[in-house]
Amino acid sequence: SKKADASDENGMEAENDVITIGFSQVGAESDWRTAHSESIKKVFSEKNGYELIFDDARQKQENQVAAIFSFIQQEVDYIVLAPVTETGWDTVLQEAKDAGIPVIVVDRMVKVSDESLYTAWVGSDFKLEGRKACAWLDAYAKAKGMQEINIVDIQGTYGATPQIGRTQALTEAVEQYGWNLLAMESGEFTQAKGKEVMASMLEQYENINVVYCENDNQAFGAIEAIEDAGKTVGPDGDILVISFDATHGGIVNTMKGKIVLNVECNPLHGPRVEDIIKKLEEGKEVDKQIFTEERMYSHGADVPVITVDGTDYEITEVTQDIVD
Ligand code: GYE
């Protein structure tokens, strides 16, 4: 551990140990990601007694692997990893383990052959998010007397836990409710790619009436593409936009009705990661997995509550005071 070896005149060690954290972040692909980075930076600040080495991998796993190797070389006290995809971590995490550096995984999950390769994970239940969205759409379609659901899926980065969970929930719902799933393609969680994918889907299919966007930035791009194509979004428009994250921009669009449903995915993991590190510092046990609780936001109040696996989830109608 990198201790500030300050001893006073009597040789007593001063209480100024700095905890060094190496944080490997996916990138800066979305508003969610920016909020997540800010939350980590805010907590692991110098004034809170930390030295944070922040590495932005620009959505590339190889950059994350290189960053982790460099954290090991620098002998950081903890490695915090927000992994781009689930697989491909065994070798580098084994190195961290051999070096005795605890790894805390945040946001997306890792799939490793040996669970002891990381200490703890904190993030969202992405499949549940998807199931909530689909249960809402089923209830909404029934409330509004929609005859058919002709849906397209703008997926997230392939192999990332939120993509896997949100896509899986949709494909299961398609079976269960008899919806027509016209197309699915990744927009890599970005606004630009989301727009591009939506534009090409609109060219191929005339009858799309719902787009399931696996994050807000893709929804922003999809809305642009739909409007550019001369169609309208919203409860009285041609296409219903469903989204995930509930970022500020996402909530504003939900208030306007451009997004009809937005399932929250909370990015503010800084304090949760710090909580884990504090417990480890005190020699306490930590939970292997921690799931955050999340809400749902809608335009209008057509569906006030849905039930998934016997649990009721209330849906908050977005009004100006929620935006503020
Ligand atoms: O939904 C998306 C971001 O991993 C939960 O990544 C995160 C996802 C989030 O780019 O906006």
Automatic annotation (TrEMBL):
Keyword list, A-Z: Signal
Nucleotide-binding among keywords: no
Subcellular location: Cell envelope
Domain Periplasmic binding protein, chain residue ranges per copy: 21-259
Pfam families per UniProt: Peripla_BP_4
Superkingdom, natural source: Bacteria
CDD domains, per database record: PBP1_galactofuranose_YtfQ-like
The keyword Signal is assigned to this record: yes
Chief localization: other
Protein family (similarity comment): Belongs to the bacterial solute-binding protein 2 family.
UniProt name for this protein: ABC transporter substrate-binding protein
Gene source species: Dorea acetigenes
